[in-house]
Structure formats: C-alpha cells, structure tokens
Amino acid sequence: MRMYDIIEKKKHGLELTRDEIFQMIREYTDGSIPDYQMSAFCMAVYFKGMSDREIFDLTEAMATSGDTVDLSVFGDKSVDKHSTGGVGDKTTLIVAPIVAACGGIVAKMSGRGLGHTGGTVDKLESFPGFHTSLSPEAFTAQVQKCNLAVIGQSGDLAPADKKLYALRDVTATVDTIPLIASSIMSKKLAAGTKSIVLDVKCGSGAFMKTPEQAKALAEMMVKIGRAHGRNTHAIISNMDIPLGHAIGNALEVTEAIEVLTGKGPDDLREVCLTLATLMVAASCHLSIEESKARTKEALDSGAAHAKFCQWIEAQGGDAAYARDPSLFGTVAHSLEIIAEADGYVLSCNAEEIGLAAMMLGAGRETAESVIDPRAGILLLKKPGDAVKAGDVIARLLTERADTLAGAADKVKAAIQLSDKAVETGKLIYEII
Ligand code: URA
Fold first, then answer.
1. pTM (2 decimals)?
2. Residues having CB within 6 Å of any atom of ligand 1
3. Residue 112: pLDDT band by 50, 70, 90 thresholds?
4. How far apart are CA 167 and CA 160, in angstroms?
5. Range among 154-168, 261-275, 414-428 rated most confident
6. DSSP 86-120
7. In this structure, which residue's CA is closest to atom 2 in ligand 1?
8. How far apart are CA 304 and CA 310, in angstroms?
9. Would you place residue 130 in the very low, low, confident or very high pLDDT band (cuts 50, 70, 90)?
10. Is-catalytic flag, 168?
11. Whether 89 is catalytic
C-alpha cells in the first residue's frame, strides 16, 4: 500500500494491518518514505488514535528495526527499569545496586540527558574514570561477575524510533499515548530484558501532567510489554516536585550514596524501595512480601552500598568517591535563596527548578553542551515544610558566576510559600 493510502486510512480512523505498519516503518527507516508523509501520519494518529493491536505491531516494528540485545545467557532473570523522566530522579543509582545485591540481574542501557538535568550516564560519569562504553562481551562478563552493568546507548537500537521521535519533536506530535508508549517500549524490547519495571512520572516536571494521563500511559506500556512476553509492571509516581533534595549530577550521586548508607530523604527512599521490590520479585521469582523484606535488608545491611562500590570500580570509576562523596569537592560560586517570612512551602514547580539547574551547568541546552558535574541545586525545603524567616530554602551551586542571578530568579518564581500549613500530595499514586 502507498504511504498516501496509509495516511488516508488513519485519517478516517481505520485500523491498519500488521503488514501495513511493518512496511511503513521499514520504508521510513530506509528513507523511502519522506518526513512530510510520516509527520502527516503522526498527526492523524494524534487525532484518531490506534487500536491496541496496531500499537503492539508498531512497537514491534520499531523494536526490530535495528540491533537487539541478546540476554538469553541470563535466562529469565534479567530485569530493566525505565523512568519517564523527572527532575532529581536518581533512582537507577540506588535501585540497580539494591536489586543486584538481592541476586537480581540488572543489565541496563541508559541515556544521557538533554535539557533539565543529566541522564543516568551523566550522573555516573561524575566518578573520575567511570566509563559506559563496554563491548557486548565485557558487558555480559561484568553482569556475570557483579549482577550489574549500566552502559550508554550503543549500537543501532530501534533506529526507527530514533528517527521518528526526532520528527515528532518538531511536528508537535510527541504528546499522544500510542506514539509515546510504542516509542519507549520499542527501546525496552530491543534492550532484551525478560522483565521491565516502569516508573511513570506524573506532575509539573513530567510529560504526563495528571494521574489519569499517567495511568493511561502506564497501562498501555504494561499491555505492550506483556503482549511481547515481557513480565512488565509500572508505578505511577509524583513529579510535581523534584525527588529528594539534590538536582545536578555529583549532587544526585551524593544523595544516592546517602540513601544507600541508610540516610537520605524519605521520598527518594520510598520510591526506590518500591521499584526495587518489583524488580527483585520479577528477577528472583519472589512474592512481593518476600521481595520487600529482601530489598530492605540489602539497603539496611550495607550490602547495596557494597554492591554500588563494586559496580563503580568494575566500570573504571574511583570507588573512593563512593565511600566518601565529599571527594567530589565543591564549586566556586554559590547563592542561597532565603525565606523572607515565616510560613510553609506550598508548591515547587519541578520543571522550572530543572531548567534553573540546567542554566547553572547541570544539564545540556544543546547536544554539544558540556555538563559541570558539581553544578546544581540543593532544595532544602520542600512542599509541606515549615520555614522561618532567614531559613535557606535552596542553595544554587555553579562554576559560572554569570548564571546565578537568572537561575535564582527562576527558582524564586518556582517556589510558592503560604502562611497556612500545607498538605502534600501522594508520592506513589498506583502500582500496576
Ligand atoms: N520518551 C521516549 O523515548 N519517547 C517518547 O515518545 C516520549 C518520551
């Protein structure tokens, strides 16, 4: 069928066949279908949607459009996690070693960040010497040795999605569940793990602004995973406010180490334990109750922190920093945002705080920007907290003094105070 006819069919809300979907994705990837036709198709999907079967086929067509990772050597124990992205989200740094310490197998590909703050790879590269480009053999050998390896996106994984996502980004067609769900899950299927645990973020700092939208996305991704034989679960968690207190790469690593050593903020610990429980249950075939007890024990006994140190060293990083994060040092310039009156923190716009952290050097404005690992924001007061006049609400850290004033304006505008006590919303809305 001609691409014109496929667009016409979708424009009228008709269901495409599996062959039509596979042909479209194959021809778009090899360049025979031009961007202008594909963007018309995406806009038709935005208005007319896709059936579950069409979404499953679209995901599979994109997942098999390039390389796929073979993790069969780990049987049915390999497990991956994916977060739909949020500010201060350092959960992988904590969850991966907990799961590995419990005997689970974490063989994971992670990305670098664009905008907001860095991605997991950027955070890990705060450790001097840490590298994420391992050959497939070295990757497998490391997972066999320490149950855990995280590498950067390598090879030609789901190239159809890469091309299509870039097109959607400039044609206002990102925000539609069939295309988001198939895009994310195509990469997860190609990455090869038997189980997948998704953390779908919901709120001002996330793609999905309401719990209803987040639930619809989570349910669709879980359906896609299960339809393709992957043991898939999801949580829906709050991203109205940043997770934890630290935003910025080495700052987030430091906070992750605090959680791994029995300290750290409660919200971060709770989300991590919930994700780790689902992953350990899937990887080690345990009940949720057994898995919960095992993950808590791994965290409380120090086994997860020991695993973290082993992991950092295995990938060339200096594990001394993992034992003593003060070695990361500090930046040349800082500025504190001070409360002018007594009151309570009412809200804190996660997206704006993320953008302020990016201005300070913690994220990338363009793909070429260089990240400063020590730059970022420590959010010392969060919604629900009481403040007294003179308290420090946030501390901004940077090597670039000229960025401080603009970032401080953004942070001040992002944080609302109230003179009345404030109830905070739920942290985890639902587990699917
Ligand atoms: N992340 C992805 O990988 N794809 C989307 O479509 C949206 C977020």
1. 0.89
2. 165, 174, 179-180, 183-184
3. low
4. 11
5. 261-275
6. -TT--HHHHHHHHHHHTT-EEEEEE----BSS--H
7. 184
8. 10
9. very high
10. yes
11. no
